[in-house]
Batch of 4 targets.
Target 1
Amino acid sequence: MSQPPLLDVRNLQVEFKLKNGTVRAVDNVSFQVNRGEFLSIVGESGCGKSVTALSIMKLLPKRVAEIKADYVKFDGQDITNLSENEMRKIRGRRMSMIFQEPMTSLNPVLTIGDQLTEPLITHLEMSEEESNSRAIELLNMVGIPEPEKRLTQYPHQFSGGMRQRVMIAIGLACEPDLIIADEPTTALDVTIQAQILELLKDICNRLGVAIIMITHNLGVVAAYADKVNVMYAARIVEKGGAPEIFGKPSHPYTIGLLRSVPRMDKKRGGRLATIEGLPPNLMAPPSGCRFKPRCPMAADTCDSSPELKERSKGKNHFTACFYSDDANKKGASIYVSDKDKFKLIKVKKDKPVLSVRGLKQHFGVSFRSGWLSSVSGTVKAVDDISFDVYPGETVGLVGESGCGKTSVGRAILHLNLPTGGELKFNEKELNQKSVALVRQDMQVIFQDPFSSLNPRMTIGQILEEPLKVHKIETEEDARSKRVSELLTKVGLYPYMRDRYPHELSGGQRQRVGIARALCMEPKIIICDEPVSALDVSVQAQIINLLEDLQRELGIAYLFIAHDLAVVKHISHKVIVMYLGKVMEIGDSDTIYGEPKHPYTKALLDAAPIPDPKKERGREKIILKGELPSPLNPPKGCVFSSRCNFVTEDCRKASPELVDFDNNHLAACINIDGGK
Amino acid sequence: MSDLGVTKDDNIEKDVTKPSRRTLLDFVRQQPLGSLGIVLIITMMLAAIFAQHVAPFNPEDVDFEASPAFGGGAPSLAHPLGADAFGRDILSRLIYGARTALSIGFLSAFFGCSIGAIIGTSSAFFGGKVDLLVQRFIDLMLSFPIIVLAIIVIAVFPKSVVLGVDVNVIVAIAIPFIPKTARVIRSQALAVVTLPYVDAARTNGFSSTRIIFRHILPNVTAPFLILITAFIGQAILLEASLSYLGLGVVEPTPSWGLMLSGVNTDYYRTAPWMIIFPGLAVSIAVFSFNLFGDSLRDWLDPKLKL
Amino acid sequence: MLAYTIRRILLVIPTLLAVAVLVFFVLRVVPGDIVEIKLAAEGGIISAEEIQKEKERLGLDDPIMVQFYKYMIGLPRGDLGISLWTENNVSEEIMSRIGLSFELAILSTILAVLIAFPLGTISALYRGSILDYVIRIITIGGIAVPSFWFGMLLIMLILATFGNLPPLGTISIFDDPKTNLYQMIWPALSVGYRYSSVVARMLRSSILEVLSEDYIRTARAKGVFERIVIVKHGMRNALLPTVTVIGLEFAFLLGGLVVTESVFNLNGIGKLFVDSVVRNDLNLLQGLVLTVATGFVLVNLIIDLLYAALDPRIRYQK
């Protein structure tokens, strides 16, 4: 490597001056990116990865952010002290950025064409005609059909995935040397994520553009990155080539991070590794190694700050830990011991606790169309779905957004009145009246830990309320004792009863949500995306808690989620949904090991596995197109418009679920063709 | 900025939580202008309550020697803010006028907002046809300027004074506030109804009354308080305008608007204090409530649109 | 866009009808009898017979539904009945005064926009500076100061400077625009202070809101000139809510005019409105209220159409 790196950052430091103090969001960060290279910066929320990216582009608000560095060399030129106008000439021309939120990153009142040609006109001084034909070229390149027509349209006429394609086109417009992508696919569904990332990788490879990808998704890193920076509490704790980071992680944090993610490619059984505690508050970070308070290997030496040191000469693998060799050797065992392995409980399948037959949930939608008339349509959010949940069993319900999985949960709980079908709880029919009698046996945990607790009530009041209302504990002392027990059971402390929800962290709030569900001693809990708003390390804590509680109390879960790996880890049985219909049902290991339905296969292929060797070796089917409008689903099989194996017959009738072997059902008429 | 943990968390907390543990001292530190507003409001309230002890003269004492008509009345030691056409002390009349302004302001804002809040929340709960009808009616009411609505009410309701309070003026000022409050509170309540903690309460089988009073109403109090403060200022302004037009309170009740009413053109030149000070009093009072209201909104619910 | 416009215009009719019906019935509740007040004002002793005769003459003793019927069929022809006080045609009475009020409204809107745009923009772009603080205090003041009092202060100022007051509103703008403007600028200023404060505050907060949007960051990341970021990407979006406020305040100007016209002794519809209340002149009041509501509905229509022109999300609504 005689050529100097494209980007060379040395000792970057970013401070935010806030009302209640100063926060150093990036602390002494150094790294390099070569031409055409793919660097990933990973870490949990608040670790400083996005701030790093924004500070390179100098896009942080100057009023509050102060950026310092020994140097930030871009193509040999130090850009630390460039004037705003000189920096402007680089932005969009030589380095550009793609942001996380495709829905809000485009200006709603300007046409796509206008926004796409803007950098061309500003930097390359193209004429209107030139820039227009270049814009059409760019839209073609990012796979947007009918580019001429699309140029005159506005952002709201594009779907999320399409907008992100437009953002990529804008980023690549002037053929820059570097693209910084800040969580570009976090807001998108997994099949769309696969499309976008493949596209980005392809184009950048072809044009020789270097990429810095900020992400929290280790699978994405494993699939694409050449180099990885792992950040924790504003610092880089480990950096190196992707094979080294994934194959020989040698910082306890990296090891913990890799081990706390559930894996689709591993057999079920065993708890996840969890990093206890929470990341430090950057207003008052711990002195010395910042990971010390959570590190299972921490020793007195860790009171001083470890330097980033190269593990062995020339390997370019750096770790900031005094015990990196030790950590490397021990690997996952520093977090998990044998007692964390457990035998899977065999679920007794005699009497289902919940039985769903032909469940339908249709919503009437009406919107105006011309002349005071209104057109109304029906969205079949859930269309004829049947399954059973047995005591002590976890049934996973997966699908992309808009597939109706949440509606299933709400219909069962009668939060929305089901349109049709039969629901039975413990063999007794559930309807609007009888549901009142079993409310205590059927509880729910929500996705958003911030809005699922009443901000005006203390934790104690929240947990006591059902006990009081349903006269389960009438004595004040007994209630108070129950609350203490519940808090302890979910891993919180009894003294937290006097706290208000906003005084707890997201993970702690989610634990309170679980405690609230538990306090009625339910038979089944509907878990609606209970971990998707949480960081990886906290997510693992909550998943372990749910599994422990199930083994101890024999509760059944209906686990609704979009994260395939999480569902695989926790569920005995899995249901795959698409546009309100069941595509496939079966045992967790069977569905993930031998998927039958083309949609299930595509879904599994789209979700990257956090292991570069496996991930890059596997063949993938990438789904084309996007989810059709639920108001106007395709005729016949709802999946036919995106299926790679579609035949004429698929569009004729909706396929029935067929039992292939031993309760493994799939709804496809071309199962063999799909193989 | 999305990755900056501290600020992100702060924002989220502001979104979902109310300042249950924030103290008055925090308010003073973070909202200096709002605190100035509070100080002014409290001063006015004290002056109004203890008017007998604070005012140097009886507001109704006539002293023609001190009247500008006879060349007197300019601000002096005896009459710091001067005297009016009847030689009445302006400072004393202003202090007593604060009683009228503040009591009418508080009462009408409180009644207007409370009725509006009840209409707004019920409309959100009942939904369907009721909600639609209420909404249309609110739209209709909102197509009139506040003062026009108030004047129509004055025209419709006969004058009535109970315990020295002009009830018809209060009603006239309160009614125009109802549709606006109803609209704001309705949208707030609608937002709260869809929150997961309300769903959680429903899955726990709690009664509707319990859900409304324990889980929903406490979470719409912030906009309610903000609206009330904003409307007290507007009510004081409205009372002054109505009284100025001769449609509000009438003599002998001391009122700032009334003091400006029917000022002879000659006095513009000969006795400017008769015009300057009452108007200043109205402005300062409204200004204080606006300052306080603005800060209260920034503090409790920065995203609330009024 | 055309479909949207037509739909939006058609929506005006039911709204106005509802207002007309509501106004009619609400005002029939008014206590006090115009005939008695009127005759008493003419002096002498009035007998019950005279009152009855007068009522018959004015059509006030018809059953309420008959009165309502007459009123409703008069509406489409623009016939609002006669004033019970002057016995002039209400429509004519209003039309003869509305020009003055309309001119005042337009003038103060122009003033307000001219003052508000620089103030609001500067205040937002230099947020937290001393300039921002000063502008914010001035604009909070604009909402606090009663416009009639501000008018009185202006009169005092004119008197102190020129020694005498110009005869207000007596010369039509079409006859002598210069004199007319000189006369009208003062009342326009008195209404305009509040108006411009409201608009400036709205503009400030919406610029600040827009500048923190993601698409502004996108524009900066493209390397677009900061000037273009603010004007092309920022202002256009910030204008949307500001246009609404300008329109609403314009529609509500009559509120301000009611008092301002009294202060400056202008014969506009604001003054007519107060007079009609004082005299219990139901027909006139009814006509005026309908005029106000019509004005509001029309202005709202214009705002919505403007909004659609500025915001493609509305233009392309299904």
Target 2
Amino acid sequence: MNAPDTGYNFAYLDEQTKRMIRRAILKAVAVPGYQVPFAGREMPLPYGWGTGGIQVTAAVIGADDTLKVIDQGADDTTNAVSIRRFFQRTAGVATTTETEKATLIQTRHRIPEARLGEHQILVYQVPIPEPLRWMEARESETRKMHALAEYGVMHVRLYEDIAHMGRIVKSYDYPVRVNGRYIMAPSPIPKFDNPKMDRMPALQLFGAGREKRIYAVPPYTRVESLDFEDHPFEIQTWSEGCALCGATDSYLDEVVTDDRGGRMMVCSDTDHCDKRRAAGHSGPMAAPYGETPR
Amino acid sequence: MIPFPSRDQTPAPNIPAPGFADPVRDAQRCFRRLLAALSYPGRPQEIGDLLPRGPEPLYSSTAALCLTLFDVDTPVWLEPGLDTPEVRQFLSFHCGCPIAAHPGEAAFALLPVAAAERLAAFHVGTPEYPDRAATLLIQTPSVTGGAPVAATGPGIPERQDFAVAGANGGFWSRRAAVDAAFPCGLDIVFVDPRQIVGLPRGVHAIGEDA
């Protein structure tokens, strides 16, 4: 499986492109939360499928890396499987589904539940990198707003939620302030994951292919979710645990099980759930671990 | 008739110093260590094993960084102490990078540590485009053998001490003056023959000025 395709350069991109992306990544690390424009290439998959994340991964990955790819926490969904195969074929790298064993993790819309360490790099796929875009459509204006740290409009946006609904209803892509300076879109991760970004020991890189932006949060960097004194930031909670592993501290997905209203809540992070079940934890709907359900 | 050169001829003096043995693999390795250096400021990263030698007076480690970062899109400033025919030939042969006529035009600059007073000459970016600031590669005899400097900021859990030899003479106060305009500022990589230490603009470093 690890025999890479010949005919492509290592990790698909040519060296000139990798150098350009690498320079953008270094500037992104130097100015935490600032979106660095880069000459994004056409990739052999459509925009919206992680073209930005793939280009960042391709510029960073080496033959001795172990790659994990997740889509909404799962290693076995279409997007994750195809991107993992892409790098198996073009770079011949080892892959894993275990968070702890990965040195490079590309993610669509989740941060793994396991705490990441200094030996790891997390690469996010980003659809819309500009957090102010829904309030201000003009790039020339949002650029000026970032330059002047003029972020009042974002607080007004959150305040309007409170005025209309009594609370901030934004539940994913919840805006953050990085190192006390730039307001940044964390990509559409649930706000449940926002606290994990704060002072994370691993380097976090963000790639937006359609919008051609790269940005970064260096390790151990302050990441605060925007809020108000009387409406502090809160993460999602659930009244029940995971139906399979019983976890009460992980992000849960709702899965419809039949057409009579049946449903179950399960861990979004499949590796986290699997590890817990292997360790003997079990939820109300779990088959004994290791037995294939019929 | 022009005689064909015989095989045992000694190599012409204008053959440039060699590049990476495996350009794809070695550039990636060099980049990852540079990325680690800038992600964890003040922590030395090993980089001396990637090239056998560089063009005089560049260290092999400095030359490896040049091969990893420079190409036709990056004007490079050579500070007089490092501007030799060997270096120019190496850069034009392997990287194809333009040599900047003025420090303010450069995307990258190669400096000896003694040229610290030149900091103000480089482009620090603009508030709209802080990414257009220059990156300085500063050669020093040792990134671990100088006066202690305490750094705090992104990439550092509490406080990181490091000790770059030769970085005194007002270097730290000059750097602080340049970086007061954050997000504008200069990103610095100190290079010794074996190791590098990264110092991005947002990191506060308090050193003892000699």
Target 3
Amino acid sequence: MKSDLFTIMKKEFARFFGDKRMIMTAIMPGILIYVLYTFMGSGFSEMYATDEDYVYQVNVVNMPQVMTGISEIENINIANVEETEIEDIKTQIREDATELLVVFPADFDEAYLNGPRGMSVSLVAPNVEIYYDSADTESAGAYKILVSYLDVLEEAQANIFDICSGEKEYDLASDEDVSAMIISMIMPMLVLMMLFNGCLATAVESIAGEKERGTIATLLVTPMKRRDLALGKVISLSAIGLISGISSFVGIMLSLPNLMGGSGLENMSFGYTIKDYAVLLLVIISTTFVIVGMISILSTFAKSVKEATSMATPLMVVVTLTGLSNMMGMPEDWYMYLVPIYNTAQCMNGVFSMDYQMLPVVVTVVANVLFSGVFVVVLTKMFNSERIMYT
Amino acid sequence: MSNKVILKAEGLRKTFKLSKKQQNIQKTKEKVKVAVDRLDFEAYEGEIFGILGPNGAGKTTTLRMLSTLIKPDSGDAWIDGASIVKNPEIVREKIGFLTSELKLEEFFTPNYLFDFFSELHGVKPEERDARKKAMFERFAIDEFAEVKVANMSTGMKQKTSLVISLVHNPDIIIFDEPTNGLDVLTARIVTDFLQELKAEGKTIILSTHIFSLVEKLCDRVGIVMDGRMVVCDTLENLTKDCDLEDKFFEICENLTSSEDNTKESEAR
């Protein structure tokens, strides 16, 4: 039994490692993810970055006395304009010819100096209108400067108390915590998706492909037990799928700091320990068996590679969406970790956010191994079924 | 040829469900097609037993049951004492099965495939290497031993399939249409080889619709029509008065007229 199992595994590995195209198909996603995410990250950074020497053109109607200090800001050029020019300037903003139009009420100075205590209950607070183009980086930048300047001006008049003012660091989250939170949100979905894709190509080719080409029937007339064939295929395909999955995982981890560069999180730092990575690997390996088991069963049902790929597409959607289940929070009951794929998403979420217990991890791994065993039994029965194998 | 019965089939029956589409094509309302209908026959050790019949007669289905690829609905067959229903794995150890349905993975070379299938059949490495050398030389595969099957000619692929099906040197060989699709040269190599195997004392069960092949190779013949074995006798007895082709059509005509008579009497 052992010998036949290894013979099948050796053959599957020889098929995979002997074919440069298959190796490339497995490893390329990781490389492509790294390149793509890095490009995307630098693209976002450039998109939202403005030249440090850039001077914003700000057009002001009814410039109040209290705002004269704004002209001291180096990269702001204030132009006083008349109310009659409002529509023209709005057009210029739409055409990116100028950045901003600020319209103050005519009596803004008086209202400001009287402050809220000077206003009767029926009075409405003066409204400052700022017209800008959020799709234009420079216009959006000028808008931010103006709004923060006005906020400060408002607080100066009506400041009762401050929250977290000064240079002190109030957010006690470490860089690791912030990075972990971001990774735990997106990684389970990405890893499950990549793992599924990695397993899909090889498992479909190895089972539906062999069935389509008539080569699996040649194996079925040898004295080998069907169970050895099923187990040999699942183990070797899982190992191959894992290579692909790990390639993608490494690609994602390496490219995340680059991808997040545009959102100001370029200093991402990973504080994961060896134990975290070991737990993660254990969960991923057991999940690979489950995924390969599911795809193998579908592939055995299918008559061709094309049909198997079509049949696996809805499954891929379910697996990917399950990867987002961490958004709904982690389950408190241990038995929820018996549900395959969902348990993986939750475990990965826990590991990535550096907040997990060992019990759910153990339940997940054991459940995944048991499910894989069930899938191998089903696959063995399918290999024994002439209706499935020879139609 | 000895008198030892090495293969005994008793009441083999196999049916297939017909889809609506198949029912329309075959112009029938029957939902089930009887491919093999209570087939009985025996083959003796060291003989070449030919199963002769037109397309769709049930020859391939019979051989697929004997090789344990599919299970009979009822009946059983014993190959060297092992039941195809109860001990399929033992049967598979004893037989070599070759049919055009069984393909070799085109990515691999004959050398790799010979070793791979030898391992699955539990052939020892020394025995395997000696056998590989002899068989590759016999079929002139040695020059192509490291060429991927995908890059071989059809004839060479067929020869490789033949060699691979016999890696374990089985005593009972089942061939479905052994010369189908082969050019005359390769067909000749295969028929010569079958005679060599017979000379070595192997039992060969082959299916074909080619009369000349049966006349050239077979010791005994079973004629199968509509899933039933209508005649099973030695080639000598069957060709006593006329050649095999004439005998075959004579049997066909007799069968058709007796069926017509049955229908008429049923109608009355």
Target 4
Amino acid sequence: MKAIQKLGLGIFLLALLLFNALLFMGQFRLTEAQLQESVKQEHVEVLRQELQPMLGETYSSSFSFATDFNRLLDNYNEEQQRSQQWDRVIWDDYAFALARVASQGFVENNKLLLLFLTIIVGAAGALLYILPQYRGEPAGVKNNGVMFSSNKSRGVVGITIGVYLTAIYVLLYWYPEYIVNWALLVDPLSYTLSGGPASQWFLYGTIYTLAILVMGVRMFRKYKGNNYQLLRTASVMFFQLSFAFLIPEILVVLNLPWYDLKNIWPLDYDFFFEYSVASMLGSGSAGLFLFIWGILLIIVAVPLFTYFYGKRWYCSWVCGCGGLAETAGDPYRHLSDKSLKAWKVERWMVYPILVIITVITLLTIANYFTEFALLKQSTDMLHQWYGFLIGAAFAGVVGVGFYPLMGNRVWCRFGCPLAAYIGIVQRYKSRFRITTNGGQCISCGNCSTYCEMGIDVRWYAQRGQNIVRASCVGCGICASVCPRGVLKLENGPEQGRITDIPFLTGNESIKVLN
Amino acid sequence: MREPHATGDFCIRTPGRRIVIIGNGISGITCARHIRKRDSEAHITIISGETEHFFSRTALMYIFMGHMTYAHTKPYEDWFWEKNRLHLVHDWVTSINFEQKELQLQQQEPLTYDILILALGSKPNKFDWPGQGLQGVQGLYSYQDLQMMNDNTANCQHAVVVGGGLIGVEMTEMLLSRNIPVAFLVREEGFWRSILPKEESDLVMRHLREHHVDLRLNTELKEIRDDGTGRVSAVVTTAGEEISCQFVGLAVGVQPNIDLVRNTELVVNRGILVDQHFATNIPNVFAIGDCAEYRVPVPQRQSIEQVWYTGRMHGETLAHSLTHQPVKYNPGPWFNSAKFFDIEYQTYGMVPNRWKQPVDSFYWEHADGIIAFRAVFNGEDKRLHGVNGLGLRLRHEFFDQALRENWTVEQVLVKLDQANFDPEFSDRHHREMLQAYNEQFGTNLEPEKKEKKGLLSYFWR
């Protein structure tokens, strides 16, 4: 490792350390006035009473502040529940909002400086480490030592990163009040873009986008000389930065709903839920356009593009989940399970999830058109459970948190209902396939090893068979790592796409087939 | 030698016959799989002392380099064998009693067979160099060799690889992946010159040097020196130069691994002699893969073929003969592939390292010097003999058809776009190649246009 790379790694680690230390810094002091501003009118009185012990108190960290708050609120809610006063229970989640306004001191006063020292310096350090990689080396496969790496082979480093990522997702989804200091960091950016304060989701979006950009640069280094990989990576970087990060904030500035124009139902599972539809249709003609755009993506774009280019047009060129998997997740792609059993589990998970979200969506729409006579408000419960189990726990915690343990496409492979939908189109009506080059396969296994979707590519290649699989996201890594030029991603005529040749090209001993 | 007359029924065909295959490499395993496809009753046993399960020998280097683990190199999951009732015996065969049809094993009970298939593979050549038995000196063929190489290179500051062929360049790449500098001793005036024409050899050598390989051409090994403890300390070349090293890789070819059957009634030469049905001189005993030597070679081919692809074809063909009807081994146009560090090599048909009239050659090299294409053909009727591709991927089916149908080099060159197998968005070179051909041979060929059928084509049609 070159000195400059060591320096970069050191800077990155220091920035990461400071970033984590931030959670324990700053002070929190909630005043009555702040409470009044931050909660619904009907809750002000109750909360002022219940939170009396902490009002005006100075807490030395968000942890003690949030712990006190949650304790007091829980006491109150439990009491109401015990006395069956259901309407008096406070369901709203005020912890994050109150921790935000209560924050003061070091972090609150030095947001810009700390943003620079943690996130910006951290990204710069990572780039210092990444940019000199493979300099002066010829283009080619760069997988030396992957299986010896503690990070990439479920060693101590890998497990530590997995636990850390998982913890971050748990905090982000269910305990955002503990990471309020991180959200404060990106306040300056949020104010610049949309004029509002940063939520935990804006923080998440910022780091997510930065991870794709920085690790995208790593892809440029690692796969230099391979135009398919370079273009594909540039594409996911572009879509993440513009469609997923900047444009939604601009829409907010324009008084439109926050909307990621490339997110497609059923991945965007709440697209048809009442509140989404209401917010789109309540935003005038531009909102109506967003609604129609979303529907066109589902019924026109998916079948059309998938027919011509295969699933890859979305999963490894456009999608945000795919974008992170293909950049930040690339070092872990070989950790996917290739066994036949895993394939069975995959099919028993991903398609049922597609069915479940379809049923939930249809029920929601039916309920909406019957003016809630059908199921009353009970679809809300379905939405919450789906959001909790699939949207948060599966897509987030397991999907990304488990990168270093189960590979970078766990969500896409086992959970994503959109991938399931596109996959069905790809399997049955598409021009896309991975062509196997006659009899040239030497069964070495590089293709299967580095397939992030856990497809046993070699199984097909060594039989001279084209690879046509619903799950293939067309990342093209199998073709890149193949040492004998056996695999090629292609769009071609449907005829002859699925092949089954009993004897491999090159052997003419056997004339009588079948 | 005359080919013995093929009989219609040259092996035992009773249901439930016991077929024993010695060797679980690509030949033996392919044969076993194809027998099972057509004969659900046969008792099939595969014996190997090397590893319990079939793995891809060609991938050994990737285990050493950390691209894969041993488990990744197994083409079939471990349940595959039991599910297909392919009985695996992990043991070494110590002797064969052809009279009693019985095999003695090192650890386990003897096994009897009705049909015996020998797929014994190869072993590295050694040419009685002084010191070749020292610790730290080895070839690379088996899984055990790989483990030994792992141990032998643990504290290695400098290594020497002897032999300018495929295993030699693989060993060199393996060692360099662990930052061990390598002196690569090549006997000929260029890398793999016994196979590659000069330009291809030069191109590969430039690439090796870019990878900091210390190439020593026209250099032969004279002796290997001891450090006093039984370990290698240096090699001496025939020119008298001493190169200090702690590891010596011997990669000067392989020979059939037939010690097991030497001095038995099985007739052997360099390999086990077989007819075109892979039948040996003993009924119901067959030999396939690296260890087989044809009594009468297939025209234009070696009598011993030690290539992954031919081993696989042997297995396919013999299985067909044993389960369906006897067919002669009849490989189609030759093909092969290799990879020299980052440069992929594919060849189709026959490209000799040297040629003379009326054979002619067209060679094109990209300005970057890492991509090349050669077509060798009959200078009179332009019929294609074969092609070499370096740094570009070529479609097997395209050239298989071109060679079987005796296309001319010009027919091939105008259609070369269809032969392209490079990843999408790669630079295309077929126009440049055709232009080079036109200049060199005074022709005026135009590339054949292929109809595009993408989404965009619907717009501007």
